[in-house]
Amino acid sequence: MRIVFLGTGEFARASLRALVGASLRPALVVTPPPRRRARDAPPEPTAVHAEADAAGLIVLTPEDVHEPATLARIAASAPDLLVVADYGKILQPTLLSLPRFGAFNVHASLLPRHRGATPIQAAILAGDAETGVTIQRMVKRLDAGPILAQRAIPISDDDDAGSLLARLAPLGGDLVAEVCRELAAGRLPPERVQDESASSRSRRLDAEACTIDWSAPAADVWRRVRACSPKPGARTWLLREEAMPLGVRATRPAEGEGAAGQVVDLPGDAIAVACGRGVLLVSEVRPESRRFLTAREFLNGYRLRIGERFGRP
After folding, report:
1. Coil, strand, or helix at residue 85?
2. Of 166, 169, 287, 155, nearest to 222 (Cα)?
3. Are 47 and 8 in contact (CB under 8 A)?
4. Mean pLDDT, all residues of the chain
5. Which of 72, 109, 150, 249 is the most core-located residue (most Cβ within 10 A)?
6. CA-to-CA distance for 109 and 144, rounded, in angstroms?
7. How far is it, in rounded angstroms, from Cα 142 to Cα 283?
8. How many helices and strands, by DSSP H and E, does the chain display?
9. Distance between CA atoms of residues 212 and 245, nearest Å
10. What's the CA gap between 251 and 280, in Å, rounded?
11. What is the rounded distance in angstroms from the CA atom of residue 86 to the CA atom of residue 106?
């Protein structure tokens, strides 16, 4: 079976690796072109590009996968199937119609819940007890195609977006390889139409969305910090004469009260900050342009006092 694989980051890398390991080597890999991660740094290939190079696969890096030359190259590879994971672009019918078996997408949620760009973060924000991966047939509407297979895992209180991605990526790889093996053997799994009444949409978390609102309940702030970690990272400011921007991670909710954003206790291993309801215990903070510090290191270095406030300047 001839597969064309489209993907970008670490989640997609695991799917590509699984296909190669299952003797389902893609005839062609399509990924975005190398990008600079910093202004003066050289362009770096995507995780999928690096994985494809290591496996000796043919790689295309178009800015627009729908440009005529790229579509012609994909069509010339005579694909039976497109496999898409974390590609980050809306695919048009002109591309989806090229392979005879259509296109399968590896999505990091239990569809129809959390369609869209940030399903892992959305599951944490929603307080879901579990999440998983879905293999779905791609249609024109985003993440709305029929489901071929799903696999679930629990979300622990210690999970953030980074740790959950690390657990979901190989799960998605194993599942898409299993579905593709079945298709190659002529045993395509039965498809299940998604329940539209149960659908929800995830949206990207930018720096503004990851700015802590201390008037929210502590449990909500805790989930937001986890959803924003490791990128773009939750942030706040220590409201001194000159407001100090701080990154925040390693938190947990607790009982307590006080004015929203106020430091109400300094137990040593954490900074207790009052929220709209309850208290958030903050174990690690990062002053601008520095590494993350433990609460004790921050207390010793910055002389934090009970009664000081965190919030927006």
Report:
1. strand
2. 155
3. yes
4. 96
5. 109
6. 12
7. 38
8. 8, 16
9. 12
10. 7
11. 8
User: Which class in CATH covers the domain with range 3-202?
Assistant: alpha beta
Q: Give the DSSP per-residue string, 162-230.
A: HHHHHHHHHHHHHHHHHHHHHHHTT-PPPPB---GGG--EE----TTTTB--TTSBHHHHHHHHHHTTT
Rounded CA Rg of the chain: 22
Domain ranges of the chain: 3-202, 218-311
Fold identical between 3-202 and 218-311?
no
Residues in the chain: 313
Report pLDDT digits (tens) over 59-97: 999 999 999 999 999 999 999 999 999 998 899 999 999
Q: What is the pLDDT of residue 189?
A: 79
| Superfamily (CATH) of domain 218-311 | Formyl transferase, C-terminal domain (3.10.25.10)
For β-strands 59-60 and 28-30, DSSP reports them as parallel
pLDDT tens by residue, 132-191: 999 999 999 999 999 999 999 999 999 999 999 999 999 999 999 999 999 999 988 789
Q: What is the DSSP string of 212-271?
A: --TTSBHHHHHHHHHHTTTTT-EEEEE-SSS-EEEEEEEEEEES---STTBEEE--SS-E
Pairing of strands 201-202, 234-238: unpaired
